[in-house]
Amino acid sequence: YSLFANKPKWTSKVVTYRIVSYTSDLPRAKVDEIVAKALSLWSKEIPLSFRRIRFGTADIEIGFARGAHGDLNPFDGPGNVLAHAFPPGPGLGGDAHFDQDELWTDGSSLGINFLYTATHELGHSLGLGHSANPNAVMYPTYGSGDLERFQLAWDDVEGIQELYGKRSNE
Ligand SMILES: CC(C)C[C@H](CS(C)(=N)=N)C(=O)N[C@H]1Cc2cn(c3ccccc23)CCCCCCNC1=O
Ligand SMILES: [Ca+2]
Ligand SMILES: [Zn+2]
Ligand SMILES: [Zn+2]
Q: Is the pTM of the predicted complex or chain greater than 0.95?
């Protein structure tokens, strides 16, 4: 696993998130469910919890966009870069953007699996960089593992726990 320089991390015990825009590829409720699931994969390993807000400014703002969309990383059309996310911090920090030009799917074989991609992006939003382990969710390229029954690799868990410690399930 790798961390970002200076190891940015969330210092609050509760991190807020807001889904600011959706994709026409999936029902809204499904997007909400998948985002919550991706966050829970990470939060079950660390003493951090997430709270969804529907208005106002959240720590982690999640949305879909195509091409140039207001930050310095314009998206590139179908394929290539699928999404990006910023390390913990104010403003854009923690935000995760998904390329609207991909076909976002849930469990079906074609298109891009949204749960897998959201888990990867939210790993960045929590402070993880890329892993050299092809089985890790934080591996830089999509599609190396089993996308439908994936889980966090040990490497992912070690990395996130180095940043936030273990969740003590008393
Ligand atoms: C791990 C993801 C969920 C998130 C990362 C983006 S990020 C910022 N969050 N690390 C991603 O999109 N990686 C590219 C990397 C990549 C693979 N290729 C590329 C061709 C051009 C540009 C990028 C790529 C070769 C062709 C395949 C293109 C489709 C799949 N794309 C990728 O795997
Ligand atoms: Ca793209
Ligand atoms: Zn962006
Ligand atoms: Zn990445």
A: yes
